[in-house]
């Protein structure tokens, strides 16, 4: 297939969006001066109620932003046959636009029901609290898409990680699609090669991939995501040989065959602190997810894992760079400032609640 014109179209579409609606720091300095303070204040309160909410809120930006861009022939994971497949398509999807937050309606199945999100993403109620506080202070001013970017930054900073100046000015999408999310979001079974190829579609480098995977420095994941690693890696009927033996014993105790697969375990040894312990664990064979441990077993990603495991400041610097790049994934599209992050303006709240 002759693909070069589609590559040009992809680049043109992304560049057009960024040029047409440039994001910038201090976007709300005149229209809603307390906006960033309000977001951080709500995140602090959520952290006191439930420390795990910080990791949950941080994940929302990634799952929102990566459903993005005009693409052709995307590799995706079929959870039912447990294989990676290639699905040819030309689809315009949306980027950092708050589409993830839309609840299902009678005529739309949104991203919350996608395979990588259902029974996994949480803390949507924290976003609701932020939006309510912002609407009280500055009605119809701050987008839900910008809330996700601010909340992710604050979750990292409040967990002991880096703080940074975010670029704002996004609009909220008018729709969402479960299928679009299923077609693009990576599986916990993914290997380094498939992750590198996925990130490359968004102009994110191998270094960006490894640094952004460091978001797993905080939080937990379900046994569902690792059962194959423990008992049937690559259809072998055996565990993943990359798992350090003592750590595998702990995982076997946490996730025995027949367990409720919604039981959760920590993604690294310091799941409430944003630090470089995650990379130290990968070096020692103690990565929880296959998609994480493969970053050390792959020769292309291993050097960055080693550097970040030894130099936390270098990890923090690369993580901030990756978050800023990911936050600017945009495609020109109609948008609005939603007054309720769960529904498009003007729609009655006849949604099928997803929690």
TrEMBL record:
Per the record, the major location class is: secreted
Sorted alphabetically, which Gene3D superfamilies does this protein's record hold?
1.10.520.10, Peroxidase, domain 2
**Which interval of the chain is the signal sequence?**
1-19
Pfam families tied to this protein: peroxidase
Chain residues that bind heme b: 216
Q: Which chain positions carry the site (Transition state stabilizer)?
A: 59
Sorted alphabetically, the keyword list is:
Calcium, Disulfide bond, Heme, Hydrogen peroxide, Iron, Metal-binding, Oxidoreductase, Peroxidase, Secreted, Signal
List GO BP terms, alphabetically.
Answer: hydrogen peroxide catabolic process; response to oxidative stress
Q: Which residues form the Plant heme peroxidase family profile domain?
A: 22-345
Give each disulfide bond as a residue pair: 32-138, 65-96, 144-341, 223-255
Q: Where in the cell is it found?
A: Secreted
Q: Which residues of this UniProt protein bind substrate?
A: 186
Q: What does this protein do?
A: Removal of H(2)O(2), oxidation of toxic reductants, biosynthesis and degradation of lignin, suberization, auxin catabolism, response to environmental stresses such as wounding, pathogen attack and oxidative stress. These functions might be dependent on each isozyme/isoform in each plant tissue.
Q: What is this protein called?
A: Peroxidase
Q: What is the lineage of its organism?
A: Eukaryota, Viridiplantae, Streptophyta, Embryophyta, Tracheophyta
């Amino acid at each position: 297939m002759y693909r070069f014109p589609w590559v040009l179209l992809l680049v043109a579409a992304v560049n057009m969006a960024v040029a047409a609606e440039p994001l910038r720091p201090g976007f709300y300095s005149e229209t809603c001066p307390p906006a960033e303070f309000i977001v951080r204040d709500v995140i602090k309160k959520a952290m006191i109620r439930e420390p795990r909410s910080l990791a949950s809120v941080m994940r929302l930006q990634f799952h929102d932003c990566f459903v993005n861009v005009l693409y052709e022939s995307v590799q995706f994971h079929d959870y039912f046959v447990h294989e990676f497949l290639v699905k040819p398509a030309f689809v315009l999807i949306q980027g950092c636009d708050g589409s993830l937050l839309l609840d299902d309606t009678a005529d739309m199945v949104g991203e919350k029901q996608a395979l990588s999100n259902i029974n996994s993403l949480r803390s949507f109620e924290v976003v609701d609290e932020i939006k309510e506080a912002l609407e009280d202070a500055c009605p119809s001013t701050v987008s839900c898409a910008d809330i996700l970017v601010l909340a992710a930054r604050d979750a990292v900073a409040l967990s002991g990680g880096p703080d940074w100046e975010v670029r704002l000015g996004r609009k909220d999408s008018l729709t969402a699609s479960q299928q679009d999310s299923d077609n693009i979001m990576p599986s916990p079974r993914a290997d380094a090669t498939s992750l590198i190829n996925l990130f490359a579609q968004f102009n994110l480098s191998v270094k960006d991939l490894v640094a952004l995977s460091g978001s797993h420095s905080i939080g937990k994941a379900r046994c569902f995501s690792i059962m194959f690693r423990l008992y049937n890696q690559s259809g072998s009927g055996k565990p993943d040989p990359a798992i350090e033996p003592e750590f595998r014993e702990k995982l076997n105790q946490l996730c025995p065959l027949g367990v409720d697969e919604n039981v959760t375990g920590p993604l690294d040894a310091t799941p409430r602190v944003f630090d470089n312990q995650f990379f130290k664990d990968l070096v020692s064979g103690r990565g929880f997810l296959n998609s994480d441990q493969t970053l050390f077993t792959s020769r292309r990603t291993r050097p960055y894992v080693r550097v970040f495991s030894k130099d936390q400041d270098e990890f923090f610097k690369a993580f901030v760079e990756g978050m800023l790049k990911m936050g600017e994934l945009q495609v020109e599209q109609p948008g609005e400032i939603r007054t309720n992050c769960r529904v498009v303006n003007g729609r009655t709240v006849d949604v099928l609640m997803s929690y």
